[in-house]
Amino acid sequence: MADGNPAGVMESDGGLNARVLALSARAERVLSAHARTRGLAASLPHADASPLRIALLGPYSAGKSMLIAALLRLSSAAVDELVDAAPKTHEPTPYAWNGVTLVDLPGTLSGNDEHSGAARLGVRGADALMIVTTSELPGEAETKAILQALDIDGFADRSVVVVNKMNAENSDRDVILDEIRKRLGPFADRVPIVPTDARDYVDAINDPDLTVAQRELLFTESGVDALADELQRIVAPGVSGIRPKALTFELLRVLADAEQHWVLEGEELTAAETAKKVEESISQAKQSVLSTLERESEAVASVIRAAGSKSADGVSEKDGNVPTDVARDVSGELAREMAKFDTNFSSSMRAAFDALVAEYGTDVPEPKAWLNDLDSPETTIDASPDGESRFERAVREGVEKGAKEGVRRAQEWIGKVAASGSGQGSVASDFATRINKNRVGQKLLNVGKKVSDETGKFNPWGRGKAAEKVSNTASKAQWVLAVMGPLIDLKSVAHDWGERKRIDEHRKTIRRHFDEEALRTRSALDDSGTQHLNEWIVEVEQSLSGLTDPGAEISAERETALGAIKSLHCEVGKLVRPTN
Question: How far apart are CA 118 and CA 98, in angstroms?
Fold first, then answer.
């Protein structure tokens, strides 16, 4: 469309013209930002005050040129010159008529792709359409082209359908018009259908042998005058009423073209698909581990809560203590559940690793061994805002007096074992040496005879394996002690049960403690497990970056560009389909 911005143009469109031109300016910036779409910027609509353009769209031999000759009332010689070509029209040809421009387009079904392409461009530059078919009725391809023009191209309210050559022999006007309406479907009531015979009209103009009555009859029956009236009605709103709608739909078409320019092909498509596949594989591997982590951490929390209920229910009505056998059972359940968590979480990491290796080979890095390093805060119960409770003071004093190993001293010793590592001379190593001297210790350490022989002598590297096992077990024992704090047997510590809390309150305290530990442990497991997983995922992404980077880069560029284009497309679409 022609450039220019004349003052006072398109003032009766309710602001549509200003809005679409503003959006077109935005589209120009968006399309010019990328080499793929830069060439489309020249096709964007601009302000245009030139006469309205009515394009004639139809198949080869439908009589479009003859209709123009009739509307222009050309002489016989001029008619012959106008229609003397095969196909008759090779490129869009303009003709001035009653203040508008009739544009004769190449036949869309001439069998010439170049002609069809030129016709499509002509449609895009039109303000209104004269859709021409014949009494032979449009075929499937022609019907599809007509419906596209009325629907997708937005010409439903700016078109007239002309059924030409209606005065041919054996033509039943009513049957033909009824069939045309059926083929127009939902647009039959919106688009005027005008039956014509342009040849009869031209003959009526130029045949000197016709009487006045004969001439008038041909004029009337040819339908050309009725067609002229419909065309005048369509263009009556003028440039300011019709052109903004044409600009809006053209902007939509340019934006649709821009989206198509971002359809990836060849190497780019392969790279993008590869990047997407790798990313999906990594995401699936990550999600499978996270699912296991969530399930297993909740299982640990459930066991802790159940242990609290079991312990609270076991509190003696006589002295307020939890029986030794109950405490021992609860402790074993906790330790077993944590070991189960470690096994299942590690297995899920291994399964994720194996799945990625199966797809991408040995470039996938192996995850580091999972180390459950839960923190073990000092156990406190019955705490009050005023300071140390009687219970805490009794425990502290009892431990200090050495009456019996209490929670704090046990945690101190186990903490040293856990923190010392498993090297030569470590606490864990010394302890492993000591317990390996008796049969029970040998049985605990010597799973699969990997540590020592039948005599209790360490195999090569056996001492290290034993120390490692002691260290890992100590870490779990440290955690178990933290959870089990309220149940430690402190019989030698003085208790004034006359001042102690009621039994029910003691049970509530135990349950509350275990519930809090369940929440804390689950959160700690989720956090540490997620961190362990994320660190590995980062390594995987880096190792496979050669597969993902090229496609990820083009995909990101495409996503950004398409986001801007589609946003504009949506805004322009609201101009032609406003929401209530």
Answer: 25
